[in-house]
TrEMBL record:
Keywords: Signal
Residues of the Beta-lactamase-related domain: 38-335
InterPro entries xrefs: AmpC-like, Beta-lactam-related, Beta-lactam/transpept-like
Name of the protein in question: CubicO group peptidase, beta-lactamase class C family
Classification via Pfam families: Beta-lactamase (PF00144)
Superkingdom of origin organism: Bacteria
Signal as UniProt keyword: yes
Signal peptide interval: 1-21
Coiled coil: none
Length: 363
């Protein structure tokens, strides 16, 4: 009788949550399989974490079409513009150390930068600088496969006519984040790759995260693909020194959860600097826009979120964090024919419904 009583009590406290988890898994599978139903093609990996721990993680499709290897949740993906989160936090870490200020003009570090006395680090972080985005330049094809130093990249776009005066409007801009990577090198005295690895990856325990390379042997790499009329093809090759600090990092869903948890626990930034990353800012005319430092500041059904995606040849990525409920949803795809953006948003909406109110100490 005692054993039956114990089983009954355990069912009361864990049974409903188990059923809820099963329902969540089935619902999420249904959402993902809308777009990731080709078992023999490239696919993606998805994770939902609640209170810092995974409650759902699955892989769909192939990691390598030539070898027929299935994707797993441990595969390494190129992050694309999710790299901007790391660049922004690196800048804030340097500010925290007193080595720079986000209010500093670019001219303080690059004396000959055009209009550099009016463009601040804050403008670069918030995509409000007005400088020409190099990804929109026709001459980009001339350098796409060349090894470029950060200075060469900055010189490539710095003399282009500006699109607007600093602070006049928000316009998503990769060049601004390349310039931020160059500033990180100038201020820290370290290469961007070394700074991110030594001060972020190593400190957080992100052992499966890298500065991207097509030449290095990277265990568990997911290969990138594109889809043409004839079928899937290997991704277009670029030199990662071109996207640089705007889009050249690689990681896994597990490492990205470590990253999110480190931000929550103020392991890298204190409260004041963290607040700067996740605040909304205003244009010169007082109009507020929905971007902080490296994250879009949005909402799901009026519940605040922090979001960012990425797109680079062969890969698309997206992550949504709901701070009020400590829910983190991430999707990484190894074909730029599959965008996880809407799926991740739909999953986050569903997870919010399923997981809201679940206690931290629930099994």
């Amino acid at each position: 009788m005692k054993k039956l009583f114990v089983v009954f009590i355990l069912w009361i406290f864990t049974g409903p949550f188990t059923i809820e988890a099963q329902n969540l898994e089935n619902a999420v599978d249904t959402i993902i399989l809308r777009d990731f139903k080709d078992k023999d093609g490239p696919g993606g990996v998805f994770m939902i974490a609640h209170h810092g721990k995974p409650v759902y993680q699955k892989a769909f499709g192939k990691a390598n079409l030539e070898l027929g290897d299935d994707l797993t949740t441990d595969n390494v993906f190129q992050l694309g513009s999710m790299t901007k989160q790391f660049t922004a936090v690196a800048i804030l870490m340097l500010e925290q150390q007193g080595k720079l200020s986000v209010g500093d003009p670019v001219s303080k570090y690059i004396s000959d930068y055009p209009n550099g006395n009016k463009i601040t680090i804050h403008h670069l972080l918030t995509h409000t600088s007005g400088i020409k985005d190099f990804t929109k330049m026709k001459s980009l094809a001339d350098i796409a496969q060349k090894e470029m130093t950060p200075k060469m990249m900055v010189d490539f776009f710095k003399d282009e006519p500006v699109d607007f005066a600093p602070g006049e409007k928000f316009d998503y801009n990769n060049a601004g984040y390349v310039l931020l990577g160059y500033l990180i090198e100038l201020v820290s005295g370290e290469k961007y790759e070394e700074y991110i690895r030594g001060h972020i990856f190593d400190k957080v325990g992100m052992t499966r995260s890298y500065y991207a390379s097509d030449r290095k042997v990277i265990k568990g790499r997911a290969y990138g693909y594109q889809k043409k009329e004839s079928g899937y093809v290997n991704k277009t090759v670029i030199n990662f020194s071109v996207p640089f600090s705007s889009g050249s990092l690689m990681s896994t869903i597990s490492d990205m959860l470590k990253w999110q948890n480190a931000l929550n626990k103020n392991i890298l930034l204190d409260t004041a600097e963290t607040r700067k990353a996740f605040s909304r800012y205003k244009l010169n005319n007082g109009e507020e826009f929905s971007y902080g430092y490296g994250w879009h500041i949005r909402d799901i059904n009026k519940v605040p979120t922090r979001e960012h995606g990425g797109s680079i040849f062969g890969f698309k990525t997206m992550a949504v964090y709901i701070p009020g409920e400590d829910i983190y949803v991430i999707g990484l795809s190894n074909c730029d024919c599959h965008s996880p953006t809407k799926l991740t948003g739909d999953i986050a909406t569903m997870a919010l419904t399923f997981l809201r109110g679940v206690r931290k100490d629930n099994p």
